[in-house]
Each structure stands twice: as structure tokens, then as C-alpha cells.
Amino acid sequence: MPPPVDAPADDPRVEPDGRAADLERRAELERHAATLFVGAVLCVAVVCGAVIVSGWFAGVLVDSWERLFWLGFVLALVMVGVFAAAAAPGGRDARRASLRIAWLLRVGLVLFVLSPALCILALVGDFYRL
Fold first, then answer.
1. Which of 112, 119, 118, 117 is CA-nearest to residue 48?
2. What are phi and psi of 89, to 5 degrees?
3. N or C: which end of the chain has fewer CB within 10 A?
4. What is the pTM of this model?
């Protein structure tokens, strides 16, 4: 059933114009990007702080596991950079900015899972001498 001609703008049956929908999508993605950026920075800071306080350092690992640990650490730094790029404002075109932010968030979330997995795998592998 089509909406009445005199329907108010906030009527759910009325299609919002593309520009307004793009702006809303961009605002939502920017909020997600900023939240994930802050979360990633806090996670990396907490892990680094815990490692420093514990007196542990990567040099005590067997060489092959140490390389895997440092790969995970580098990926964690890249993750923070990707989330920072996603949270950075820029561009007039809301549709293009939304696409850029969405792709950066996807990459950042993959790194958010992969980087600690590599570090934990290295620690467990070294501990059990796998």
C-alpha cells in the first residue's frame, strides 16, 4: 500500500531520500569506528602494560615462536592504525566515505581477531615446546 500523499516525513512508509540515508549510515559507521579505535587502543595498552609489569619479554621465546609473537604484535599496531584511519573524518561524499569506513572496519576486525591469536599461539607453543 503506498503512503498517503500528505504523510509526515518521519512516517516509516516514506522512503528517505538517498542523501539523508547516506548521511545516517556514515554517522553510524563513524561512531562504530571511533568506538573500535578506542577499544583497540585500550586493549593494546592493557596487554603491553601487563607484559611490562610481569617482567616478561619476547627474547626468552624460542626463535620460531618469537617471530610469530612479533608478527602478532605488528598486526596489532596495524589494527590500531586501520581503526584510526576509519575514525578519521574526511570527504564530502557520504556514500564514498561510508564505503571506505566499512572496508577499514572489516579489515580492522579481522586484525582484532588475528593479532592476539598469533601472540597467544606463540606463547602457548613456546610454553609447551610444540
1. 119
2. -70, 155
3. N
4. 0.78
Nearest to 115 by CA among 57, 34, 44: 44
Q: What are the structural domain ranges in the chain?
A: 20-127
Q: What is the DSSP string of 17-46?
A: PHHHHHHHHHHHHHHHHHHHHHHHHHHHHH
Q: Which residues contact 105 (CB under 8 A, 6 or more apart)?
A: 29, 32, 33, 36, 83, 86
Element (H, E) at 78: helix 63-87
Distance of CA 78 to the CA centre of its chain: 10
Is 7's pLDDT higher than 60?
A: no
116: amino acid identity, one letter: P
The one-letter code for the residue type at 126 is: D
In angstroms, how far is the first alpha carbon of the chain from the final one? 65
